[in-house]
TrEMBL record, chains A, B:
This is Histidine--tRNA ligase. Homodimer. It comes from the Bacteria. GO terms for molecular function: ATP binding; histidine-tRNA ligase activity. The lineage of its organism: Bacteria, Pseudomonadati, Bacteroidota, Cytophagia, Cytophagales. Its main location: cytoplasm.
Length: 473, 473
């Protein structure tokens, strides 16, 4: 006999878990929609020609590939087999599973360029799949919730990302959060301050590992990559600049001026440029985002940190970058994003810039669970169970059952003739809050007994008044 | 440059389509929950050991299989290659995509037998994948919405399936529907009336094709399978029995009695058995379901048809079977289901009987579209766009924007400084119903101009009264 199982890194979600996950989705959806983002859904299966090469070599490895249907091996030759999987792959698989929501979004924008109204604001809440090694907070099937605006370079979009991040986390009751913000322009200026040119990505990749390998590890890596000890010293002075948001902006600017970094900003934007004596694009934009937040009534500046060490890896970001941590749980970032200048270039539509961010629902779920922030969730939506004594009283309950449902009270009649005790046990196990007892005596007298399970309180009411009484409950 | 595309049989859903699909999901979800069904979600990826052999040979062919990650070809030998795909498959793929919601449900029940409370009522609304040839109403990725009860043989469950089918279709405005009902016991009795034994499935499969190949085609097939002409004649007399629901029950009973079919019912149930002079299980149960519907206040008996030709193929049904057609659209069935006696047997948990049914959301969508039953849907959830003249008036609008959102009115500030005409065009293209104009004059006077896009009506209001006015809008 086969013992059933599910693939590692995947999960079943029972009734209580689905209800809790829906709670998270609803708060995110309401926030996205409140800011004018419209929903988009893309297929689970994408052509590998769309997915491959978009996520780096490691990403290509982690893509789930789907076997062609029918006689998939018909074009495979013995020579292919000798070379191995690499030669076989293009002959046996043309499709893969969605790996993130950004590439499908870019594909959608490129395919529908003629009919979309720009700026185009979309949100997308769908699962993605990665053949990663499963571990804490990392699954092979997990949900992302993305919101992106393309077709505008207004910094209002950056400010609204911070507002949305805070609104969702506050809505979930996750108060102890830090929204980290940085700007690729700041990292570029830092690189210039070190006297570097053209190898920014080496620096980004090394800084990105600061969390994991620490200052010593990063130093070692940078020395190996040909940076000098003096340079690395300057780097850490700049990265560890102290103070609040504004103070860090000022001190970094002073550092850039001292190092002779050529001013490169502000680029022209719709907003009033913040007045700064020397204009570096990254610093200016970060100042503007802060001003727009203040003008929008944002109050949680103690949870917004300008972190010059935030790099967000090798990704395609070109402007502001974001990352959110929940401080009182040991968990990777629960949200992140940034501005990009060329989302759809690889799909034949250059020059589409935009900014977006993503929530990891599964990590938010794990945080809420770790902090015990979920309210008790029943195993069923049923609010009322009608119990009965025999087939006749069961059948006599059918009109009441229909009335309860019509009044919007999810209800069940226990389907079998069973001992009352068993019926109550069913209500108890599922967390059904109200039980109606309809025995022959009650029916003969035109009455119903209602028991509130939590308190044990019982009331006897005329049958005709039950629906009204429970609607008020 | 790569021209992006999506795999055939898959679809992108833009904002208006997602909104329309959500409308369908919401009505189905509310109905399921109103009847006490609790949500379950299972992974997209299932082990092929769970999926294979559950859907017949054709189903095994139509399963999407997922390549093992890493060096998937490492165990493939030249000998495998000579045999072909059949030999390669088990070496390169261990997982597949969910093909329906029933097998994962059975797997879930078997895996969690120890912790579930029975009767267990679950609903599940998730996509499934089949490598079928795409055609009208048939996609490779499509949604099913299933509700099942396991652990009770009460016919109340069957009656409630009819109630739920009708409630969903009425809720969607699809009034011209027919819910067909039959019983595997009736088909078995018909088979016995023909003098047959032990080859019922031949008969079921042939009858199932009546819609497609007609009486002549079915006759030809049955003669080839060894049935006599007289038998086929009797068969069609029984299948084409005329009258309403009750009349058909009576006439079939008379036919079975005449043919000397041994009584086989009623099986013991919790309900009062309907009084019939000779008890055939199928007919008795169909009569009981009708009685329970009447007792529940069901009024649409003109849309419930007892159809003795309904067979629902080779599937595992053992009791009542259901199928729903929308009569005024050319479209396959939009819903179907039935009772089964041994859902989880292949997963080591025998004797779990239950009854369930499924809605095809994509077909419901196509029906609603064909009948023009969708109300106009905007391309955005945004209710209000704030337009502005320059960076200063845009920034001055931020407090109002925050107030509108806090009041539950999804709102946007046009992000760029643009001509007013362009901003209005944006509102128009997206179907945003309200536009606020905040120019320097309005701001100086503490006023805002509100334009209702549908009527063109404009009002000028003190800024402080805007949110209250729009909340009432």
């Amino acid at each position: 006999m086969q013992k059933p199982s599910i693939p590692k890194g995947t999960r079943d979600f029972g009734p209580a878990q689905v209800a809790r996950r829906q709670h998270i989705f609803n708060i995110i959806r309401r926030t996205f929609e409140s800011f004018g983002f419209a929903p988009l859904e893309t297929p689970t299966l994408e052509n590998l020609s769309v997915l491959t090469g978009k996520y780096g070599d490691e990403g290509d490895q982690l893509l789930f590939k789907v076997l062609n249907s029918g006689d998939f091996a018909k074009d495979v030759t013995g020579a292919d087999l000798e070379i191995g999987s690499k030669a076989l792959l293009p002959k046996v698989a043309e499709k893969g599973l969605r790996y993130d929501l950004t590439v499908p979004f870019a594909r959608y924008v490129a395919m529908n360029r003629g009919t979309l109204t720009f700026p185009f604001k979309r949100y997308q809440m769908q699962p993605v799949w990665r053949a990663d090694r499963p571990q804490r907070g990392r699954y092979r099937e997990f949900y992302q919730c993305d919101a992106d605006v393309v077709g505008t370079d207004s910094l209002l979009c950056e400010a609204e990302i911070v507002l949305m991040m805070a609104q969702v986390l506050n809505g979930l009751g996750l108060d102890d959060f830090t929204i980290k913000i940085n700007h690729r322009g700041v990292l570029r200026n830092i690189y210039q301050a070190l006297g570097g040119e053209g190898r920014e990505s080496d620096l980004f990749v090394a800084i990105d590992k600061l969390d994991k390998i620490g200052r010593d590890g990063v130093t070692k890596e940078l020395l190996e990559r040909g940076f000098t000890e003096a340079t690395v010293e300057t780097l850490f002075e700049l990265l560890s600049v102290a103070g609040n948001y504004e103070e860090k902006l000022e001190r970094l600017m002073a550092g850039f001026v001292t190092a002779g970094v050529e001013p490169d900003g502000p680029r022209p934007t719709a907003e009033e440029p913040t007045e700064v004596p020397v204009a570096y694009r990254g610093l200016t934009e970060l100042a503007t985002v802060r001003d727009l937040l203040a003008a929008s009534g944002f109050k949680q500046f103690d949870r917004l940190e300008f972190d010059p060490t935030l790099a967000r890896g090798l990704s395609y970001y070109t402007g502001c970058i974001f990352e959110v941590k929940i401080n009182n749980v040991l968990m990777g970032s629960v949200s992140g994003g940034g501005r990009y200048d060329n989302l759809t270039g690889s799909f034949g539509l250059p020059g589409v810039s935009g900014v977006g961010f993503s929530f990891g629902v599964d990590r938010l779920y794990d945080c809420l669970e770790a902090l015990d922030l979920f309210t008790a969730t029943a195993e069923t939506p049923t609010r009322c169970l009608i119990t009965h004594f025999d087939a006749a009283s069961g059948r006599a309950a059918l009109p009441l059952l229909a009335q309860l449902r019509a009044a919007g009270i999810p209800s069940e009649l226990y389907p079998d003739v069973s001992k009352l005790q068993k019926q109550f046990k069913y209500a108890d196990a599922k967390g059904i809050p109200l039980v109606i007892v309809l025995g022959p005596e009650e029916l003969a007298a035109g009455l119903a007994k209602i028991k509130i399970m939590a308190s044990g309180v019982e009331r006897v009411l005329p049958l005709a008044e039950v629906v009204t009484a429970l609607t008020a409950e």
